[in-house]
Amino acid sequence: MPNDLTADTPYISGMTSIVILTRNAMDYTKQCMDSIMKHTPESYEVVFIDNGSTDETVSYLRTIRNSKLIVNRENRGFAFGCNQGMAAARGEYIVLLNNDTVVTKGWLTHLLGWLQRDESIGIVGPRSNFVFSAQQIHPVPYQTMEGMAQFAELFTTMFEGSGFEAERLVGFCMAFHRRLVETIGGLDDRFFPGCYEDDDFCLRTQISGKKLWIASDSFIHHHGHISFHANKEDIFGSVMRENGIKFWVKWGLTDRYVGSEIVQRETPFRKDRHYVPLGRK
Q: Which of 61, 134, 227, 241 is the 20 to 30 A CA-CA neighbour of 196?
């Protein structure tokens, strides 16, 4: 597995590395890639990490141009897989994107625009139909993908140049400069197979002095938990409970979770305490 990113790691200026994990559910990955190829005029590469698919996903991924593919024989989890992808990324910017998403016109242009205009922003996320945070638009008026595209164009045009600071962002789509990874490291893979690794990444970003931002001028459709459903994993059962306990223990919580209080208590960022190496086994 590649080593951590460093300031000396070669990268391609202006390019975005889109990191996508897969584990079966090939039809959704195809839909995601079709939308990326249609709506992403920017310079980009896609870094795929397959976590043990048993369908035709890997064969399909090998056909995608401008991409890298890392194949794990078993499910290494969301955090570990994303770290593999970030370590292999060549882009100046990195986007972690779920394979059950459908991007829309201007999605990346606006996400990158916020990062380029405001250096105080550490991570920027889009609005979406299926996300448990202030990023959510509910209800949405569409019932088809055609209707979704029309709604997304109208909504993002209406809110062009609009956004707001967030207390947290959800990991279905997060965009950031590679400098962030050089500073705070990757996702914490103790949160296996998924849940709470995005909360942890956001906290460490804020502890490092950067803010979280929601871009109202970027909309991404999210089917939601497709990989977990396709692989018959109980995301809302034992996984969430166990990772919730790990999160509370890691951050020394006892009676409540208030992110701003953790950030205030933990600041300034200390590498020995807060940095998570990409290559941790």
A: 61
Q: What gap in Å lies between CA 196 and CA 88, rounded to an integer? A: 23
Specify burial of residue 222 (Cβ count, 10 A radius: 0-12, 13-18, 19+). buried
**Of the candidates 251, 225, 249, which has an alpha carbon nearest to the alpha carbon of residue 25?**
225
- Counting residues of the chain whose pLDDT is more than 70, the rounded percentage is 93
- H/E stretch holding 152: helix 145-158
Query: Where do the domains of the chain lie?
Result: 12-267
Structure tokens at 168: 């947290």
Residues forming beta bridges with residue 20, ordered by sequence position: 48
Residue 50 phi/psi, 5° resolution?
A: -100, 125
- First CA to last CA distance, the chain: 10
Residue 231 has pLDDT above 60, yes or no: no
CA distance 89 to 87: 6
Question: Is there a contact between 5 and 182 (Cβ–Cβ < 8 Å)?
Answer: yes
pLDDT in tens, 244-280: 999 999 999 998 899 999 999 999 999 999 999 997 5
Instruction: Write phi, then psi, for 217 (nearest 5 degrees).
Output: -100, 15
Please name the amino acid found at residue 142. Y
Topology of domain 12-267, per CATH?
Spore Coat Polysaccharide Biosynthesis Protein SpsA; Chain A (3.90.550)
Neighbour-count burial for 196-217, b at 16+ CB within 10 Å, e otherwise: bbbbbbbbbbbbbebebbbbbb
Report CA Rg, the chain: 18
Q: What is the pTM for the complete model shown?
A: 0.94
C-alpha closest to that of 166 among 174, 155, 158, 154 = 174
Instruction: Return phi, psi of residue 149, to 5°.
Output: -60, -40
